[in-house]
Amino acid sequence: MGEDGEEDGEEGGNGNGFDPSEMTVTLSQFPDTIxxxxxxxxxxxxxxxxxxxxxFDFEPGEGIFPRVAEDWEAQGDGTTEIYLRDDVVFHNxxxxxxxxxxxxxxxxxxxxxxxxxxxxxxGLGSIEGAEAVDETTVAIEYGAAPGxxxxxxxxxARALNRQWAIDNYDAENDAISGSSPEDFNGTxxxxxxxxxxxxxxxxxxxxxxxxxxxxxxxxxFNSDSESSGRVASLEAGETDLTINxxxxxxxxxxxxxxxEVRRVTSFRNIFCPxxxxxxxxxxxxxxxxxxxxxxxxxxxxxxxxxxxxPRGQPVAPGINGFNDDIxxxxxxxxxxxxxxxxxxxxxxxxxxxAPQGRYLNDADIAEMVADQIDQLENVSCExxxxxxxxVSDANSAGVDPDEFEIPFYMIGWGxxxxxxxxxxxxxxxxxxxxxxxxxxxELSDAILESQQxxxxxxxxxxxxxxNQLAHEKxxxxxxxTQESIYGIREEIQWxxxxxxxxxxxxxxx
Length: 509
What we know:
Layout: E1 22-27, H1 42-48, E2 56-59, E3 63-66, E4 69-74, E5 79-84, H2 98-109, H3 118-123, E6 127-134, E7 137-142, H4 146-156, H5 162-169, E8 190-196, E9 200-205, E10 218-223, H6 227-235, E11 241-242, H7 247-255, E12 259-273, H8 284-293, H9 296-303, E13 308-310, H10 333-343, E14 348-355, H11 362-374, E15 379-386, H12 388-396, E16 411-414, H13 420-428, H14 441-451, H15 456-473, E17 476-489
């Protein structure tokens, strides 16, 4: 320290070298696409939401609030009109129009247009179309209750600059791609000034942003797939915030000066889908047996050091429709072996495919799950650890046996809309859903019925029935709800959210 009590060194810093005008965020996975519609992964949203901002602000447990959309009103005919601000501009200087928003929604939900978007399948499942009514009014059409549609467009409605995207990328037929700052063009509080594909993206505050000035002048996003590496960067002052700290690295952060751990139980469940169009997973008895073979409590206590909660349904507490009466499956080896024999698949040999570095101790958890199943006298199971992209592709490959090679894998799903439908419809509904992971008409019909119920209390009760039905049919090996564990500079004022989103505009330093 200098004699006047200020840090010797860079101007604008503080006692530990932190510059409050700049922010570096280290993710566990760097986006492998620049198309803001070609993903449904949390790390990607953490980057691209600052460039292609959401139309609404969503607060977990509270609903949606105005942002780019100033107001909205259900019309009573299967449409809701959204009224946009008239002072929003893209980073290239073009005005945002209702046509941009309507075209972006159409491109998201139409697999024949642009890039087949998982957001359209999983995020905007009830949305059927959109059109511009006038310069600032968008009519969104849906085939469900207005309340469900609001959960969906309230979380996933974004805006691309239609003419820019078509002129530069023919984006009605192809994905947006590129390797320079000019390949990004949103309306968000930050614009891209430097981009190294696969490594780093640097943003600066956008001078003509319609809203409040963001808290940091410059933001850098990078990634490290190893928790220990992310923690080391935090300790060295090379990053200011990092996600997915593993339980074994928590003490390292807590004991280091100037940084700390912040955590929250998330909306993300970890589970292992079993595609029931192939043997042995076409048997409900076999799928239930896999659940009875696994000790969720031991996994949480051992692999996660208690940073999680065992779960027996597709969604987490706090989600609309979560069923308080559903307990996790308890390990019962005898029951599991008996159900395997009842299924007719005694002697089955299966493989669990799982990622490494995407979720908290995911590879270790997968090994434990496989070992516990392998304890059964009449089933053999091994774990195969792969890159997350392999698992993501398996999850999107649908249930046609000719279209996929991996029927049993581990993945996580954050029900970020706050509604059970988001945690089930993309996996289980049959009509017009080539990406579903499970084929069961009773479960599909129950979900579709819930989508049409307008009374909130009645719909919540139906969703609780959906979760009970899912528990019984066992489309997944249900594992746990994951905690979100962050490492962060002490000076940064920010509380983590249950939906795992990282919004820099909600921070201060």
